[in-house]
Amino acid sequence: MASSSPAAAIQTILVVDDDRGVLSVVEDMLRTMGYTVIGTGDPLGALRYARMPGAIDLLLTDVVTPLMRGSQLAQEFRVIRPGVKVLFMSAYNVHQVEAYRVKLAPGEPFLKKPFTMDELQSAVKAALVYRPPANWLRG
Amino acid sequence: MPVSARLSVLPAALETAIESPRFREYLASGYGTCTDIASAMKEEPKVSIAALRQMIRTRLAAGSLFPIDGTVLAGKATGKRCPLCRRPILDGDIEQEVVVGPTTVFAHWDCYSIWQQEADAVARTPQHSVKTLTPLHIVREDGDGINPPTAEYVVSFGGAKDGVGTVVLAKPQGFDALVVLLRGLSIAHAEIGTACQVLTEQAHHEISDVTLTPAVLRRFRL
Fold first, then answer.
1. Which backbone phi and psi does B117 adopt, to 5 degrees?
2. Beta bridge partners of B206
3. Is B132 in Cβ contact with A25 (below 8 Å)?
4. Chain B contact for A91, CB < 8 A?
5. Taking the domains of chain B in order of start, what are their residue ranges?
6. How many helices (H) and strands (E) does chain B have?
7. How far is A86 from chain B (nearest CA, A)?
8. What are the tens digits of pLDDT across the range B85-135?
9. In principle, which of A85, B32, B45, B67 could form an S-S bond with B20, CB 3.0–4.6 Å?
10. Would you give the DSSP letter of residue B149?
11. Chain A residues with CB inside 8 Å of B168's CB?
12. What is the pLDDT of residues A35-94, one digit of tens each?
């Protein structure tokens, strides 16, 4: 069962999903786990958050979002905040998302929709500590 | 101009500190400084009931504090910090262990009581019935030997553009459990009949514009 932890309380997650209902519920789920959460349905809004002061430990983004794909958002986000962790979520599987220019590093966490609260928590925890291999080049 | 007006955005701890008598004495003396504020904060002054009630009300409205509808256990103080008043729960205090879904918090008895009162008040107001209109997806694993009336279904919501849901609500086993679940979501009788009929022949059915209230989501621990 998912549970909050003291460590989660100081970590901030930016969630990007253009489905407002889903965004709202995912935000609530993450807050329940103890994270500080910022939510937006607009990838460009997410980039504005990236430029603002304040910690963002993880970008949790849908792969298929209007205006800007999740992969492009992650790429531009990493330019602004090089150390940020990214977790992609999608109804597509890890192979199908490659068509959307999402190429995961070996062992990189990925959140397949639909997901349960426990699956969300496991993926977020894994993403927050994940480090790609030193020789891994992002596309 | 009062200090509270000059500092338009105050951290909660600072707001609490400003409430303290010692800090007010300093202000009255005209010698209030940042050092005094820090000193007052270290004292962890007791927040007034009115201020605590207002803070809890604000946090409930903002969604940073959840309504109480789970298990509550009373016990001896263990020194944990109460997340409501931010003071430690010390010997002699009653420690309330509040379990709501996956979350457990520990609070003073008094703080918990106010929290419960305010949560009940919020639940009675119309604003609490904020609704989410979302497609509901019902999916079963397809394959040889699958018997639709007894198979497991994954019921999820969201994901209007993907053809699958985003967040899993439940995984009912068989049509009977599925019907109970859909009734619990206030799905119309005819719609439930259609769903069962479609799922006899297909592995996926979508019910559009289902109303999910916060109360329903909490029932599913979401």
1. -60, -45
2. B137
3. yes
4. yes
5. 3-42, 64-127, 130-219
6. 9, 7
7. 18
8. 888 898 888 888 887 656 678 898 888 888 888 777 766 654 444 456 778
9. B45
10. T
11. 114-116
12. 888 888 889 989 998 998 888 999 999 988 878 888 999 999 999 999 899 999 998 888
Positions of E strands within A4-138: 12-16, 36-40, 58-62, 85-90, 111-112
Residues in chain B closer than 8 A to A31 (CB atoms): 63-64
Residue A82: both structure tokens together: 């090089």
Q: What is the per-residue pLDDT for B41?
A: 40
Residues B138, B152: Cα–Cα separation, whole Å = 10
Nearest one of A37, A16, A4 to A88, comparing CA atoms: A16
Query: What's the rounded Cα separation, in Å, for the pair A126 and A87?
Result: 9
Question: In this complex, do A91 and B63 lie within 8 Å of one another by their Cβ atoms?
Answer: no
* Residue of A69, A7, A68, A45 whose CA lies nearest to A15: A45
Residues of chain B with pLDDT under 70: 1-45, 61-64, 69-70, 100-103, 122-132, 160-163, 214, 221-222
A-proximal residues of B, 89-148, CB under 8 Å: 101-104, 132-134, 137
Instruction: Collect all residues of chain B within an 8 Å Cβ-Cβ radius of residue A61.
Output: none
Q: What is the pLDDT of residues A101-134, one digit of tens each?
A: 888 888 899 999 999 988 999 999 999 999 888 7
Is-cis flag, bond preceding B88, omega within 30?
no
- The residue type of B183 is R
Instruction: Write down the pLDDT at residue B32.
Output: 36
3-state SS, residue B167: strand
pTM beyond 0.80: no
Pick the CATH number of A9-129 from 3.40.50.2300, 3.90.420.10, 3.40.50.720, 3.40.50.300: 3.40.50.2300
Nearby residues of A108 by Cβ (< 8 Å), 6 or more positions away = A127, A130, A132
Half-sphere exposure of A77 (CA within 13 A, CB side): 28
Instruction: Check if the interface score ipTM surpasses 0.90.
Output: no
Residue A121 CB-half CA count within 13 A: 20
Please check whether residue B158 is in contact with residue B165, taking contact to mean a CB–CB distance below 8 angstroms.
yes
